[in-house]
Specification:
Shape: globular
Strand content: 5-15%
Helix content: 40-55%
Radius of gyration: 23 Å
Number of domains: 5
CATH topology of the largest domain: Rossmann fold
CATH architecture of the largest domain: 3-Layer(aba) Sandwich
CATH class of the largest domain: Alpha Beta
Strand order of the largest sheet: 5-11-10-14-12-13
Number of strands: 14
Structural class: alpha/beta
């Protein structure tokens, strides 16, 4: 909601701090005024000594910023594949009817603007809505009043599993305080002040690999950065979890933020970093507030700050899935559009601000304190020899208890679904690894969820997201939603992804409407493989995975007649 502060008052805390404060300054302006118009962009440019054109370019790149007036409150209804399947259209229609507006419009009194959004990271609470910074999961889509009521409680993480290493909390609905974290052994690893070499050795021996999707060995990454020439060095926490079906990092940040922070501070010690940047998804309002409090607690307790030589900065994204790619995330922190960089050089030598950088996923860092406290063998007691450790699996869609489930790597897919209460109705399809993953059918329930088993099956672990669709769901609509997500989220820097994601979506629309042209199926394959082979970053390289795997698995869906025959 807009405030009465002048632009100069809003921007006073950022004056003279340069381009890296561009996103924080724009968030402040957006919160105070409701949008960033030409006058605001000029004021931001003057305060930060950044060209006005660059400010405008950043504002128009990120979905959460607006250059046009909106209502005092913005309602964003998630239309990701799971939310759509679970009734997002009914929620949006009920809100539109209640407010007397269509999607994209603002009420006559200027109070409410209604929009659809590609993903909110609340898949276990589908269908989900974001009202300003407040998440809502309406129990009854026909009751829009609950969405608009500020007293409606925000949804909190749903957590379970067969092991409790990363999720060893009493109550995931309440963030674990510093006192509770320390009582459970938290910060003991940091306080023990292990030598950098010992830290890297422990992480390497444990076999920890990146939990964000790339699965790169964490110890090797740390070693590269520790050996790299150049100062200062940085640790970046990638908390820009924005892919449909993936919400595990939100659960960690909301329930146990100190574990993530301790892992990041241990990484800083391992490589000799002077600063930690936490880049948090812009839609995660509750997580942002919880992490802010945790950082204040940890600073007061002396775990970071001037007395330690390590500073911690919290940065908030602004609605761009591509910023989950490590170099695009660096660009965003530096106050630019989130365009991926060419690699090499790699972040361990030329990362944030061109300096040696370690960037790790939230879940990866949350595992580090346990490894240091309990030892690599204790970590390797879970999982398989080639895929060691416990893993967080976000399970959503047609299961009885959608949520985040911790289990050893290598658990069969069917056993994982049993942890979530089992499927709700006959399983038709399962999308493994998030929207960038691959479809399998019910015959895959015995498949072990490990790197090696999935690789042998021509699949990938990815973010470990598991989206279940029962026999009642329209898989064509699911595929359209996935394709639309990538078409909306392509940053446009490289031609194969920019054009390919648009063409993939257009081809699916035509095929599923029964208007397929003779070469459309061949074109769909060509577009998919061109994106996979020629795109600059992982967004384009994986944008066709779900579509092409569905085409192989269920060719009847693509028969071009618009029916199920």
């Amino acid at each position: 909601m807009a405030s009465q502060l002048s632009l100069d008052q809003v921007l006073a805390p950022f004056a003279g701090q340069g381009r890296t404060m561009l996103l924080p300054a724009l968030h402040a302006v957006q919160q105070a005024r409701g949008y960033v118009d030409a006058a605001a962009a000029t004021a931001v440019a003057r305060a930060l000594d950044v060209p006005v054109a660059d400010v405008y370019g950043v504002v128009t790149f990120y979905a959460l910023f607006s250059t046009e007036p909106k209502g005092a409150h913005t309602i964003r209804v998630c239309h990701g594949p799971v939310c759509r399947a679970q009734g997002a259209d009914a929620v949006a229609q009920a809100l539109a009817d209640h407010l007397g507006i269509a999607e994209g419009e603002t009420t006559a009194d200027g109070q409410w603007t209604l929009e659809r959004f590609p993903c909110l990271g609340l898949c276990e609470h589908a269908p989900a809505v974001l009202v300003d910074d407040r998440a809502v999961a309406p129990a009854d889509p026909a009751q829009p009043e609950a969405v608009l009521d500020a007293a409606t409680p925000e949804p909190t993480p749903v957590v379970g599993g067969s092991v409790r290493v990363l999720t060893a909390w009493d109550d995931p609905t309440r963030p674990r305080s510093l006192e509770a974290y320390r009582a459970a052994g938290g910060y003991a690893a940091l306080e023990a002040a292990p030598e950098p070499e010992a830290l890297i050795a422990a992480v390497t021996e444990a076999g920890l690999f990146g939990r964000g999707g790339a699965a790169f060995p964490t110890g090797r990454k740390w070693a590269y950065a520790a050996q790299a020439a150049g100062e200062p060095k940085y640790v970046v926490v990638n908390a820009d979890e924005s892919e449909p079906g993936t919400f595990k990092d939100r659960a960690l940040l909301e329930a146990d933020p100190h574990a993530v922070l301790e892992g990041a501070l241990l990484a800083a010690r391992a490589i000799g970093a002077q600063a930690v940047y936490i880049y948090l998804r812009g839609e995660y309002g509750r997580a942002y507030r919880i992490v802010q409090r945790a950082l204040a607690e940890a600073r007061e307790a002396g775990y970071w700050g001037p007395q330690t030589g390590v500073q911690v900065y919290l940065r908030r994204g602004a609605g761009a899935y591509v910023c989950g790619e490590e170099t695009a995330l660096f660009e965003s922190i530096e106050g630019k559009r989130g365009f991926p960089r060419l690699k090499p050089p790699f972040p361990t030598t030329h990362g944030l601000f061109g300096k040696p950088t370690v960037i790790n996923n939230v879940e990866t860092l949350a595992a580090v304190p346990f490894i240091v406290r309990a030892g690599p063998d204790a970590y390797r007691a879970y999982g398989t020899p080639d895929s060691p450790g416990p893993k967080l699996f976000p399970v959503s869609g047609d299961v009885m208890r959608p949520g985040v489930y911790e289990a050893p790597l290598g658990i069969p897919l069917g056993e994982l679904l049993d942890l979530a209460g089992g499927p709700r109705g006959p399983v038709q399809a399962i999308l493994l690894g998030g929207a960038a993953g691959f479809f399998v059918g019910p015959e895959a329930l015995d498949l072990p969820l490990s790197l090696e088993a999935l690789r042998a099956a021509g699949l990938a672990l990815g973010s470990a997201a598991v989206m279940v669709f029962n026999a009642e769901r329209d898989l064509r609509q699911v595929l359209l939603d996935v394709a639309h997500f990538f078409a909306e989220e392509s940053c446009g820097k490289c031609y194969p992804c920019q054009l390919g994601t648009q063409r993939q979506y257009e081809l699916l629309q035509r095929i599923f409407a029964g208007r397929a042209q003779p070469r459309d199926l061949a074109l769909l394959e060509d577009v998919g493989w061109t994106m996979t082979d020629a795109s600059l970053c992982g967004l384009g390289q994986t944008a066709a995975n779900a579509v092409l795997s569905a085409k192989r698995r269920w060719p009847h869906l693509f028969n071009g007649r618009g029916d199920g025959g």
